[in-house]
Amino acid sequence: MAKLKWTVASKSDQGKVRSNNEDNLLVDESIGLLVVADGMGGHQSGEVASRMATQILAENLKNLVKSGAVPEKTNPNVSAQTNQLAFCVRLANQAIFEASKRYAQDRGMGTTLSALWLHDGYCSLAHVGDSRAYIARNGTLEQITRDHSLVMDQVRQGLITQEEAASSNLQHVLSRALGVAETVEADAEEHPLMDGDFLLLCTDGLTRMVSEKEIKTIIDSARNPDSISETLVEAANAAGGKDNVSVIVALIEKASFIQNLKSKFAKSKNQRPAAADGRRS
User: Against a cut of 0.90, is the pTM above it?
Assistant: First the structure.
């Protein structure tokens, strides 16, 4: 499997209306983990929930990577890595739920969470709520998450149309979130990655303000993660900035076989054996 390389940029903004930012994002390039979370709850507890979600997920995943442990409750249809990621989401859910019961000011807090873990030519995805993940490839933009919201559940059931959902006053009502119940089911799947792919993780402060057509145009025009993340946030604010907006953009590159050989050769040259008298030859 080709070795993955990536360039990542992220940006989070309060927006034009909200008095605080309840979004949190996390980028851990040491293990290839990208996470966005959009918190909810009064007295700034939304910030607490989204921060707990990103931090607890990352800490537990790094521990699992180090130990190589695979959780007992596994999905046979996905890889060990994807099962590890989903397990860490469940741990984060449990911690947020217990904290909301323990502290009166945090009662009712919760958060969305969308996480991508880049490894072995793939990205593992774990997702709860209505934040989103996209893959932009060869001029197309594909949403790889399902919104866990009341209106989108109704669309999938054939009760309302996409157009009716887009104009509904109930768009913000989630059907699934972290921290609001003792257990949660995270969507867990994996996607192969190709050289030149762009990955986008975002909260709904972007997708409610900026159309997918405009998002695609920005990605196609900017062509680097820094410019894309900046321009996406600017576009959300220019459209009204009614919510916090957070984005993570990653450009995927696969190191070629020749590059891998060169890297190994350079490494071997730098690790020549010591001479017989103890000096470097």
Answer: no
